[in-house]
Amino acid sequence: MKKGKKLYEGKAKIIYATNDKNLVIQYFKDDATAFNNQKKTTIEGKGVLNNRISEHILSNLSQIGIKNHLVKRLNMREQIIKLVEIIPIEFIVRNVATGSITKRLGIEDGTVLKEPLIEYCLKNDKLGDPLISEDHILAFDWASKNEIDKVKKMILRINDFMIGMFRGVGIKLIDFKLEFGRIKIDEKNEVILADEISPDTCRLWDSITEKKLDKDRFRKDLGDLIPAYTEVARRLGILHEQSNVSAVNVTKLSSIKRKKK
Ligand code: 5GP
Fold this sequence. Notes:
7 helices; 2 domains; D-amino Acid Aminotransferase, Chain A, domain 1; 7-stranded antiparallel sheet; 34% strand; binds guanosine-5'-monophosphate; globular; 5-stranded antiparallel sheet; Phosphorylase Kinase, domain 1
């Protein structure tokens, strides 16, 4: 597979064309942004960990029948993914109230929700990804009723699966963001799960200590983001004790090699 020109650069990833018009390469950057790009930095090794964690979660979801964009991981930083038309909505799933919902609605931080709550935000950085309702989605044709119904069913299944997967390794899945895309499979229009699922897009708390193991370490200046992401990867069985010495060291080594050349 040949890597072609850059098609799109986002905050945490770059998409490259390939010689197959239906496939693209997704490159995971080390850039971290928060608060609608107002806070930015580079955290060496983050992209490598998110690539591995996202690959693990998406391949497990595939095995339980959740169609998604992942074809395969290529290397430390890249995956081959299916080219989809992204639905311009961020689907937020909450099991415990924290983050924006506590501020928006005055809900006490840490309130456990009776049922998973799905919120919709318009994917628009300039507008700060505003919260929208299902009626807005239909009114402006951002997705059809049929697509929303299918997505909601998938979301609940994904949430159930991920809660169990993380619970098994001593982590609480607090909330997360999902994106979906349109694709033609065997001449049929389908909606599949797209984008990454990683500690950048999920809130993950240690089950006992409630230590934050996700991007809130950057958002809230808690530090030690790489050890937290490495801990998530290690608990999921992705990095073995020795190799976790680690993702960061591997990137350091590769950047030293590049400088020498
Ligand atoms: P909140 O609305 O509380 O800021 O975020 C809810 C959940 O969705 C968190 O797990 C957060 O990481 C994720 N999330 C919401 N918007 C974005 C976004 O634009 N980018 C990323 N990476 N995650 C988001």
